[in-house]
Amino acid sequence: MTQMPADRILINGVALTISKGRAQALAIRDGRIEAVGRTADIRVLAGPQTEVIDLKGKALMPAFIDAHMHLVSQGLKETGYILDLSETRSLSEALERVREAVKERGEGVWVRGRGWDESIWPEKRYLTRADLDRIAPKNPVALSRVDGHMLIANSQALKLVSVTADSDEFDPQQGLLRERAVNGFLQQITPKLEEIEEAIRAGVRLAHSLGITAIHDVVRTEHIRAYQRLHRRGELHLRVRMNAPVEHLDSLIALGFSSDFGDEILKLGAIKIFTDGSIGARNAALFEPYIDSSTGLAATGKLNYVQSELNALVKVAHENGFQLMIHAIGDRAIGAAVDALKAASVGPRDRARIEHLELPTEEQLQKAKELGVIASMQPNFLQWSGSGGLYETRLGLERDARIDPHRAVLDMKVPLALGSDGMPFNPLYGIHLAVNALYEQQRLSVEEALHAYTLGAAYAGFQEDELGSLEPGKWADLIVLSEDPTSSPENIREIQVLETYLAGERVFHYEEASE
Ligand SMILES: [Zn+2]
């Protein structure tokens, strides 16, 4: 029997297989990797119709899997529906951007923004309702902080949207909302389905340009709807694992759904539970108080559940076949998450995930290891670590030095999956920060970081047999990079993604900007 020739071969490269060292070349057939090896061995798999791509020494590796993403939010910024404030360098610049948007859109039209981060502004304070009223007296304005755990609304917005929340989640004077108050607010001003579809398309294009072909997304009802519509039309060119908010757990169980329902593109993932907020919103739950003062907030942040409540939710989700995805940033929240997983008798087979895991104690990591918990971390959060940064200002030197401890996680043999949380959406940037981290507990080798952003993330999504490394039989989800990341670790963030392949098809090709 003669073998069918490959559809496409990539030769003369530096192939980082992630699982089995290095190779030079790779053959693709029917969307999957057919063989990996030396150029001479791969060449013989080509037939007259085979496309031959000479990598000329460029690096080839599996495409990135972003294990924690909010694609619709990102896409809405790309399409301009949401004003992107992540590049603003001062409070006054942010206000100027809003003023321009108000002028452009005209009286009465909503201005929604996202991405502001007071910790990098010289003013070092949150936006306020009064700030926004001054520049937008006749437009409703709502601006989410970079972490999404806080939102500032002006008077017009608060007239149109009703907010009912405790005083630690809603300060009407400041126009400041936190946590569930933010969700409740945003649910009342959701974009139209067509706008969400357009946002997803834009988000997918951006993902391809960053070398990403799969994400673990945190979705809402209308996102699920839009993803399905795109997929039905064959227009969803990204593998999306949709993680559902715990608020919908009862309905999902009643309907008989469980984790992993779906196909190779669109799947139902885990149940997402928030146990605390964020350090930026100053409501991550800590054992020891924050060191900066703040009125109206508990000194040690806030747990969103009492333990028995959390235990019950985790147990129900687990017993009904759902993977758990528990957001826990502060040490007190991580403790609560680990205890709830233990009480539910979760084991390594279940691959429960703790998201962010920013301040774990050694004892908590030990317990996480025993329970087979996956650490789903975002190395790009290290942008807030270091001298004068948000973490040091809020938490002090000692805790800043042990925040985001990727090294300690791996040393404890806790499986690590990396993602971006969209801050920013960019794996190479996150990998750069992990590899070049200031503190030893945070630092990863290039190989470790690449593994966690590919095979590690695939494992967190139960897809390590299909994705995450260059091995025969796996999907040909690949990227070509301008440089081998292991050759100059201090320049990883300068590396350009040149090509991205999804199931063997080229979905991105870098065009050098004309001079
Ligand atoms: Zn997130």
From TrEMBL:
Alphabetized CDD domains for the sequence: YtcJ_like
MF terms (GO), sorted A to Z: hydrolase activity, acting on carbon-nitrogen (but not peptide) bonds
InterPro entries: Amidohydro_3, Metal-dep_hydrolase_composite, Metal_Hydrolase, YtcJ-like
Residue intervals of the Amidohydrolase domain: 51-508
Protein name as catalogued: Amidohydrolase 3 domain-containing protein
Source organism of this protein record: Fraserbacteria sp. (strain RBG_16_55_9)
